[in-house]
Amino acid sequence: MMQTIQLAIADGMYAAALRDALSHSCAWHVESVGRPDPSQHCVMVLDPSTLEQLPLPLSHPERIVLITHRDAQLMAEAWEAGIVSVVSEQDPISTVLLAIMAAGLRVDKRHGDPSPSGISPTAGTAHASLPPEHRNPGSKRFKTQ
Q1: Which of 63, 76, 91, 108 is the most exposed place for a label (fewest CB within 10 A)?
Q2: Are the beta carbons of 100 and 5 closer than 8 angstroms?
Q3: In a domain, 139, yes or no
C-alpha cells in the first residue's frame, strides 16, 4: 500500500528537492498542499508557518514532521504540542527522509493497532521461557581457540 505524505512547505525549492528525494527513496504518494488536512490518515511534513494554521491540540502529532530553523523556542513549542520529529532546514536530506520514514511507521502502527500500547507490554502478552534442559548453567564468557 502506497503511503501518502502531505507536503506543506513554503520554500518552493526545498519542497521540490524533498519531493524528488521522496520519489526516489520509497513508494510515497506526495501531495503538495497549501494547508494540510489533519483528517487524512497520512504523514504531514510542515514548516512553522503551516504548523501555526493547524488547530490545537494537534490530532495525532506523531505523524507530523516539522522542518524548521534551529530555534530553541520553536522546538520547545513543537515538543509541547507532541511533535517528535523536528528537523532543521540545514540537516542533510537523508536525515529529513529518515524522520519522514519514522513518522510513516508511526502512522502505520497507529492505524494497524487499535490499542494505544506504547513501549509497555499489554496484559495479554505471553512470555516465552526456555525449559530447564535448554539453559546453559556454564560460564557466559566466549571461548577463543
Answers
A1: 76
A2: yes
A3: no
This model's pTM is above 0.70: yes
Which residues constitute the domain of residue 47? 3-113
Does a structural domain hold residue 134?
Answer: no
- 112, 110, 10, 4: which is closest to 61 by C-alpha? 110
The band of 110, judged by pLDDT with boundaries at 50, 70 and 90, is low
What the block records as the C-alpha cell of 125 is 502478552
What CATH number is given to the structural domain containing 97? 3.40.50.2300
Whether 56 is covered by a domain: the verdict is yes
Q: CB neighbours (10 Å) of residue 31? A: 16
Query: pLDDT > 90: what percent of the chain?
Result: 46
Residue whose cell numbers read 517528535:
84
